[in-house]
Amino acid sequence: MGFRKTDGWVEAKQLDYLLRELARSEADGRLSPELRQELLTGLELEQERRRSELAGLKEQQKLRLGRRLLMFFGSGALALGLGFFILDHYDWFSSVFEFIRQLVDIFLRMPPQVRALELLAATGLLFWVSLSRRESLEKSAWVFVCLGLAGLLFYDAFVVPDWLFGGSYTHWEHLLAGVLLFGWGYRVSLRTVMYAGLILTCGWLGGGTEYDFACYVIWMKDPVLFLPFSACLLTLGAWIERYGNKYAVAPVEITALLGLFLALLILSIGGYDGHPSLGLGPVSAVWFVVLLTVVSCAAVAVGIKYGRSRYYGFGLTFLSIDLYTRFYEIFNGWLPRSLFWLIFGALLLIGGRYVNRLIKTFSLKTV
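Request: output the structure for the sequence above.
Response:
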């Protein structure tokens, strides 16, 4: 018989054992030669069929890998081309941006009473949409309505309290609004509202605002505070995934990972000046560079081991940014930039081939 022991759906040891058992059964008289031959023929046909399916899966894997690489490099090329085009037509784009800024500035200078009415109307509409369109929200245009209402809530939560409290408030209403929005989104399983609540909470944790273009703008006043905050959010996400509404895991994890990596990236560039009221002294940026690298590698390892795409996605992204930033701190000019992207692209191709080999090995073991 033409059996192959290197691939197919039966391993070599299993095939040897099966052939020995068939021969022993025929020798003991429990199996007729005709039936044994029929079983062997059926086994060989099944082996060939599964081998053909496996070959088809291998080709599909190669096509998927090629598609990912093409999309990755194509997106990068488009982004670079768009950036160079904007730089080449900077005067025209700057005039357009200035016109848009003036329109936004007119809108933001409305009286606080009007902003308060907008806040109440946006809150009511957001709750109505989340209740009446809950089942079809994530698959329809209503998600854009909720995003717009959440954005209006996000801005009004900064302007209205200033009018009510005369500028003497301490931003605690931002935390309250964030917790209430997240709780409402968790209750109705609406991720848009959850994101709005988490953004407000992160804005409160930022601890400071600056007045620019007649509106308040959030900024990271103390990035180090986002490290324990992100750790708490990751713990909350793990608890929700095990005991709570799994629909809320993605917003919590994305917010936590984004806050964690952005804080580490900012600290790795400028270091930390310290916080006397918290008893924290200055820390060199070198330590945050090491911490960002370690955390990025750990996120990639956890994502690959447990199949968590968000973890290795954020890890690979910020590890690439970290390497890119460190490279430009030492080298500058067009030639070093070209060498960086050539080496980085070659490493990506090598990594893609290695991952494809791992996929093939895994497929051979599982088929």
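The first helix runs from residue 12 to 27.
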